[in-house]
């Protein structure tokens, strides 16, 4: 029997040693033992390469603004592990986490004795979420974010009322495939028969695969720039503005507090999905709920301005597409500033390409090591950079304190890379910036 929060986390994290084991049989086995709680929830399934967490946040915020209680399952976490299972943005409390671990642990132990083998870390967390929303905490709707891929992802045993595929990029190629078509096929695995799909995929090879899979399963497909379109986009000082058009509907001058043109695509997916839920009388959402929900949506670690004096940004750009979008936004907004980038990453990413893009916009670039099993060292990363002003740092705690104090009003300090690094860096940055009494953003 696990009795403390730290014991519960230790047991969960210890399962990282099992790595990634794609497949649904272990999840099906556990759900069968638990009485199929995953079939007791009304769910929307969200997959894609980038933008899943932001899309979940926009949709949750819209539905909350309409007066609904919304559960979410997301990964990884930024500030606290418990946020992976949340209700209306409030993370699971510690007592419930302990209870869930004690419910799942005996099953994990029993499963380990079978030919299927023990469940991975992500599988036990997914099982916890299914049991929580199916048996413990009743909510109006749950938004389940895919962990990896889609077809064989642990979440793919649900029967959703709608599916969202944000975009397709060349990430996790060692598992999902080396081409847009192969990865799209895995992502399209969340498409269910007769269940509507909403997508912002623009890459034509990938979109063709999604269209084929939707057609095979007779799933109505709603595509960005086809069935719905973004027009009149404008970057605002602290967000984005745009108009969304879909058939006979038009939502003018929508505002986001999240920065980046790509966030308009994620927001559009949320609006169109909310419209479908409204049309099906699953929820009742009006224009004001959409407008206010988008405006107040907040997702940590995505081009998040932590302070303005000095100017500090964190952004979890952890793959090639994310880095490309970050660089485009930095060029668009801060071309007249001196940009200093701090980068940390996992070894299994396309690091050479990612670093080359960062080199183009950074006047200075610093590579740091951090404590994670698959993390690249600062020394490994710095060798991939062609920047004339590059540095490798092992002690990023001390480096942040010293470097941020040196920044002037002409500097932009950007911390980016692995979301696992961002989750470690953000709390430390908040404490440091508070201690120095700078102008901190919420």
CATH architecture of the largest domain: 3-Layer(aba) Sandwich
Quote the average pLDDT.
94
Radius of gyration over all CA atoms, rounded: 21 Å
| Poorly predicted runs | 438-442
Strand order of the largest sheet: 4-3-2-5-1-6-7-8
Biggest β-sheet description = 8 strands, mixed
Q: How many helix segments?
A: 15
Structural class: alpha/beta
Could you name the CATH topology of the largest domain?
Answer: UDP-N-acetylmuramoyl-L-alanine:D-glutamate ligase
- What form results from the Cα inertia axes? globular
**In the CATH hierarchy, what is the superfamily of the largest domain?**
Mur-like, catalytic domain
CATH class of the largest domain: Alpha Beta
Number of domains: 2
Strand content: 15-25%
User: What is the distance, rounded to the nearest whole angstrom, between the alpha carbons of the first and last residues?
Assistant: 39 Å
Number of distinct beta strands: 18
Helix content: 40-55%
């Amino acid at each position: 029997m696990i009795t403390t929060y730290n014991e519960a986390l230790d047991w969960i994290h210890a399962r990282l040693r099992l790595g990634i084991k794609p497949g649904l049989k272990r999840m099906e086995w556990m759900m069968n033992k638990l009485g199929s709680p995953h079939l007791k929830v009304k769910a929307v399934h969200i997959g894609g390469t980038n933008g899943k967490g932001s899309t979940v946040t926009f949709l949750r915020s819209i539905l909350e603004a309409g007066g609904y209680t919304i559960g979410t399952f997301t990964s990884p976490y930024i500030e606290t592990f418990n946020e992976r299972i949340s209700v209306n943005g409030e993370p699971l409390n510690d007592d419930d986490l302990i209870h869930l671990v004690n419910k799942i642990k005996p099953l994990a132990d029993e499963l380990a004795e079978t030919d299927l083998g023990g469940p991975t870390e992500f599988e036990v967390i997914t099982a916890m979420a299914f049991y929580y929303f199916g048996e413990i905490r009743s909510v109006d709707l749950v938004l389940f974010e895919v962990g990896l891929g889609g077809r064989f992802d642990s979440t793919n045993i649900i029967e959703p009322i709608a599916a969202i595929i944000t975009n397709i990029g060349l990430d996790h190629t060692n598992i999902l495939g080396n081409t847009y078509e192969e990865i799209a096929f895995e992502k399209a695995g969340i498409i269910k028969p007769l269940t509507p799909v909403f997508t912002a995929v623009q890459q034509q090879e990938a979109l063709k695969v999604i269209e084929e899979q939707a057609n095979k399963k007779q799933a109505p497909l709603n595509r960005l720039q086809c069935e719905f379109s973004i027009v009149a986009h404008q970057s605002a000082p602290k967000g984005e503005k745009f108009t969304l058009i879909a058939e006979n509907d038009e939502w003018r001058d929508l505002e986001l507090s999240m920065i980046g043109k790509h966030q308009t695509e994620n927001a559009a997916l949320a609006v169109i999905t909310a419209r479908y839920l409204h049309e099906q009388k699953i929820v009742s959402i009006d224009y004001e709920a959409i407008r206010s929900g988008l405006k107040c949506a907040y997702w940590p670690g995505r081009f998040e301005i932590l302070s303005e004096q000095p100017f500090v940004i964190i952004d979890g750009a952890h793959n090639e597409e994310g880095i490309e979008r970050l660089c485009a936004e930095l060029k668009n907004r801060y071309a007249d500033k001196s940009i200093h980038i701090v980068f940390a990453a996992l070894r299994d990413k396309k690091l050479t390409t990612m670093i080359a893009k960062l080199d183009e916009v950074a006047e200075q670039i610093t590579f740091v090591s951090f404590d994670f099993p698959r993390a690249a060292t600062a020394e490994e990363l710095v060798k991939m950079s062609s920047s004339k002003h590059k540095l490798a740092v092992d002690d990023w705690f001390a480096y942040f304190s010293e470097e941020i104090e040196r920044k002037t009003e002409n500097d932009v300090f950007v911390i980016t890379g692995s979301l696992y690094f961002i989750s470690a860096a953000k709390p430390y940055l908040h404490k440091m910036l508070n201690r120095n009494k700078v102008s901190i953003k919420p």
